[in-house]
Design brief:
Layout lengths: L2 E2 L19 H6 L7 H9 L3 E2 L8 H10 L14 H13 L3 E5 L2 H16 L3 E3 L5 H4 L4 H6 L2 E3 L10 H5 L7 E5 L12 H13 L3 E6 L6 H4 L3 H5 L4 E5 L10 E5 L1 H13 L8 H13 L4 H16 L5 E3 L7 E6 L3 H15 L1 E2 L5 E2 L6 E6 L9 H19 L1
Parallel strand pairs: 2-12, 4-5, 4-6, 6-7, 7-8
Antiparallel strand pairs: 1-5, 3-9, 8-9, 10-11, 11-14, 13-14
Length: 399
């Protein structure tokens, strides 16, 4: 496919059951004037039962959790030493890489990875999916900051195949694989597909970069250890606040050469902060507490998804889910569903699902479901019973 020039793209028209493209600001616009993020957060915190997501923590609760970890008696970091070094070594060990470098944001980490690929290969074209994080959520930073351009191996809502990488018309420096591909419904390739696409990328002289913001929950579906997965890539980015519940932060893992390059460019991009110990300690806590729980969340996701598909007019993708997250569609306007979610939370202290977005099909809305610790208490019967009450409320708000 021809190289992509950022800013000239058109939104893809895909099946509404597979993709509904809306940014966060547009999502917020769907709410009634008094159905604000602050009100929804307060309502969710007051709920006794939560199906999708986790109860938002206050700043005091987050500080108390750090205090309970027993790590606050040490000295803070100074420009990347101390606890930052400990986290980097922990991540490199988990992923089986020579080194890892902490970044304040994943966007910064990924730009450094793509720049490194361009510098090392001499090729400034990146193969990335049009639904990938770089295209949808990073404002094309790879182009504006590093002068790179993208080519799309496929527009099908899944990661590219080995054949599609082999068929690229343009030479590329880096092939990006997002695990899972969030904006296609948190979908993953099979292990054989992943190994094949990695080999195909290297056969055309390209580096392989894994956007592994959610790689932690990809392990059950792929059926291999984290270190075996990352061995298929030349670099891997991981997030500490997605899934692990950290305050913020990310890491870029790979060779010692990549790490040395990343430290230089982290400083140049403004990521060499004086102290980052709150984010770092929360990331370490997430690795200790949340990472071991993820397989339970993934195992329960099919139960939740199957129960939701039994609701009138509901659709789920993928079915079964590949991770503990998936997409749900219901035949109601997004505003009615968001208002129903808020009313159910405030009046019955039950959080079902919010964040509904309009799709290309009038009257059909979509949201993302996250099966975390609170959802483990829900049976299929619980979901059916609460779902019926939720839809009754949606119908009344629609009217």
């Amino acid at each position: 496919m021809a190289a992509h020039v950022p800013g000239t793209e058109r939104h893809l028209t895909l099946s509404p059951w597979c993709f509904a493209h809306t940014d966060q600001a547009a999502c917020e616009d769907l709410s009634l004037s008094d159905n604000t993020p602050q009100r929804r957060t307060a309502a969710m915190r007051s709920c006794d039962r939560i199906l999708s997501g986790v109860r938002p923590a206050t700043m005091r609760e987050r500080l108390a959790a750090l205090d309970a970890s027993g790590d606050l008696d040490g000295l803070p970091d100074f420009y990347g030493d101390g606890p930052v070094t400990a986290l980097e070594e922990r991540v490199a060990d988990l992923l089986g890489t020579e080194a890892a470098v902490f970044f304040p944001t994943g966007t910064m980490a990924q730009q450094v990875a793509l720049r490194y690929g361009a510098d090392r290969t001499g090729n400034r074209t990146v193969a990335v999916h049009p639904l990938g994080h770089q295209e949808v959520h990073e404002r094309h930073a790879y182009a504006h900051l590093s002068g790179l351009r993208s080519t799309w191996p496929t527009t099908v809502p899944r990661n590219p195949t080995a054949d599609e990488i082999t068929a690229l018309a343009d030479p590329v420096g880096t092939v990006v694989i997002e695990l899972p591909l969030r904006d296609a419904g948190f979908v993953l390739p099979s292990w054989s597909e992943l190994t094949a696409v990695s080999a195909a990328a290297r056969a055309i002289g390209a580096r392989v970069h894994f956007d592994g913001a959610r790689i932690w929950e990809s392990v059950p579906h792929l059926g291999h250890a984290l270190s075996e997965i990352t061995a298929l890539a030349d670099s891997t980015y991981v997030s500490f606040y997605k899934t692990l519940g950290g305050i913020s932060g990310a890491a870029l893992a790979g060779t010692a050469e990549l790490a040395a390059y990343a430290r230089v460019w982290r400083h140049r991009y403004g990521g060499m902060l004086f102290q980052q110990w709150p984010a770092v300690l929360s990331a370490l806590a997430g690795l200790d507490r949340e990472l071991p729980r993820i397989p339970d969340h993934v195992r329960h996701a099919p139960t939740v998804a199957t129960a939701l598909t039994a609701l009138p007019g509901a659709r789920v993708h993928p079915q079964p889910p590949h991770t503990h997250q998936f997409r749900l569609w219901l035949p109601h306007p997004a505003q009615a569903l968001n208002d129903a979610a808020l009313a159910l939370a405030e009046e019955e202290k039950v959080w079902f699902a919010a964040g509904w977005r309009e799709t290309d099909v009038p009257g059909l809305a979509m949201t993302e479901i996250t099966v975390a610790a609170p959802a483990l208490e829900w049976t299929a019967e619980d979901i059916a019973e609460v779902g019926e009450r939720f839809l009754r409320r949606a119908a009344s708000h629609r009217g």
